[in-house]
Amino acid sequence: QVQLVESGGGLVQPGGSLRLSCTASGLSLDYSTIGWFRQAPGKEREGVSCISGDGSTYYADSVKGRFTIYRDDAENTVHLQMNSLVPEDTARYYCAWPWGSPNYWGQGTQVTVSS
Asked: Rounded to an integer, what distance in angstroms lies between the CA atom of residue 88 and that of residue 72?
């Protein structure tokens, strides 16, 4: 049984930083491509970033240069470091696997960027 549990969301001012974490059970991240999606009210879900088993990464253009995805294989956890946050980053963020056509989703964690 695959389970994904996210943490780390919250309220932050523009220009601030947050780190999201997704701890996986039932799968090994070093053999998987796992990533983050986000959805804001009234908007379509957007793929934000993913990391493959060999460490290759993808970033949406909207977050490139500001967000960094990385894994802690010992903890079977994937992190999303989000810097220089802007109000447009406000959304509920979901960890999902497998990246291409997710069958498993976390419960989501809310990120709100506001002054």
From this structure: 28
Element holding 93 (H helix, E strand): strand 91-97
d(CA 69, CA 75): 15
- Angle (CA) 41 67 4, round 5°: 65
The pLDDT of residue 19 is above 90? yes
Q: Which conformational region is residue 10 in: left (phi greater than 0), alpha (psi within -120 to 50 degrees), or beta?
A: left
Reduced to 3 states, what is the DSSP secondary structure of residue 12? strand
- Using one digit for the tens of pLDDT, what is the confidence trace for 53-108? 999 999 999 999 999 999 999 999 999 999 999 999 999 999 999 998 999 999 99
